[in-house]
Amino acid sequence: MDPAIFQVLALLVVALLLFASELVAVDIVAVCLLLFLVGSDLLDISSALAGFGHPAVVGVGALFVVSEGLLRTGALGFLSNRLLKWSGGNQGLLTILILIIVLVASAFLNNTPVVAMFIPVVLGTCLKTGVNPSKILIPLSYAAILGGTCTLIGTSTNILVSSIARESAGIELGMFDFTRLGGLLAVIGLVYLIFIGPKLVPERQTITSLASLGGDRRQREYVTEVEIRGGELVGRRFGDTLLASSGKVRILQVIRGESIIWPPLDDLVLREGDALVISGTIEELMKLQEGNDVASLAEIVSESQGTPQEKEAELAELLVLPNSRFMGQTLGSMELRRRYGLHVLAIQRHGMHMRSKISEHPLRTGDVLLIQGTPDSLERIRGEEGLVLMSGVEDVLVKKEKAPIAIGILCLVTILLGTQALPMAAIALGGAVLMILSGCISGTKAYESIQWRILVLIAGMLAMGQAMDQTGAAQWIAEQVSGLQGTLGAEGLVVVTLIVAALLTEMISNAAVAAVLVPVSLKIASQLEVSPEPFIMAVAFGASLSFLTPVGYQTNTLVYGAGGYKFTDFARVGAPLVIILWAIAGWLIPVIWPL
Length: 595
Hints:
The chain is an alpha+beta fold.
């Protein structure tokens, strides 16, 4: 094997492992990957940076603005806030209406903000009807994913695949080329979510579900931090304290200076300043923080001490979105107490790997903060961009008079993309500019709506794809795969490509999967001397069909925290669905796009 090929493949494996582990932010990994490619002379600097001006990056960024412009005019909110009236309080009908609206909307808008907008709608509606929101949130995410596969602009994956196919193979994929298969998969998926999904979706506890059921048994576990400030705890063995004997809270670790001390902790002599990371129910955590010997997380991160008036204090949850300006910030740097009068009591993050104090841990997408504040302070945080207050259905500040204009711009973008009158990036950029000039969204909000991490990730992985092409790594992989033709046939290799893309996207970003696999799939088709379109479509659909884990797709990550799900809940609901969709897609792709 050529040393350059080995280097590229080794970098690719390292990058995929880092993506899957989430040890480092995906955009940072992408930039470091780009720098390694340049530093190793595998790619010149001009080629490495070309991804930032790639039509796919420009198009995806512009469509973020178009989507946000439509959402901020309340065009979609008009439908969502009438769900309760239309459903008559019937759980089955309510679920069907939500899934249909989200599926159709996600075919033309970025599905992540669509799901983010519907989460508080679902929670608030469930609070009024007594329905457990965990029964709806996973189907909500899956409907958004299915809708995204239906059109060119439904997901960034399709845009990226289309752009690479046009530049590398001269293949033009139009607005509705994906609809021929995507529409069928969406209908089948919708039927599954309506009739089979409800039997598989588990009931999990959230603050909203407990309130709607009228109970006070808040069994959902959160993680918080307390710091020993003196008193009887200092100088005592941990095993001799009430902390060790309490069966309702778990001590996950003790942080002392730069050191992390893991259980068992019975012989550990506690010192002043020790930070204890603990897990437990809301009541038990709050009871523990009332002691005079410890400082609560709220006291640690707040500039001014004290708690809200008990008679007015309410508990609520804040969900961190992908575009939040608080991403990467610590709880202390958010300054929720100073800005909004809110106290952070705990954090809920599935699969949390603590390497620092919770008060110093950077926030990431899908984190749920347990907060306490007065009704006024909670209302002030409601309109904060990038955060979702998960309580009640309230209209956000929207420009309703601009809704017809926003809908008209979206229709114009859709028509132009359908006719292919101009390149996709130019049409999307024109739509974004029209949204700003028409006043549907301000210039500041337009910049805030762009998910820069995704754009940086795409640019970095485009550089990797180019390096694989130039060094011959893609050709080498294609030759190894093509050797299976005698056993599987060309149609079988299309199915293999589909499944590989689908499995990879469960662990890493779907955009990264598309950027890496499309060049490889083109080489495979060239080796087999067949049409590349079936392989391209296999990558596109495989990279979007993420139903097995909560980390493969951002919409899954958002509902993961909001619904209080376990990691395995997604596979429980999604496994039968992916088997059905893989079988149908694997059978029909070579039929719709002949080899």
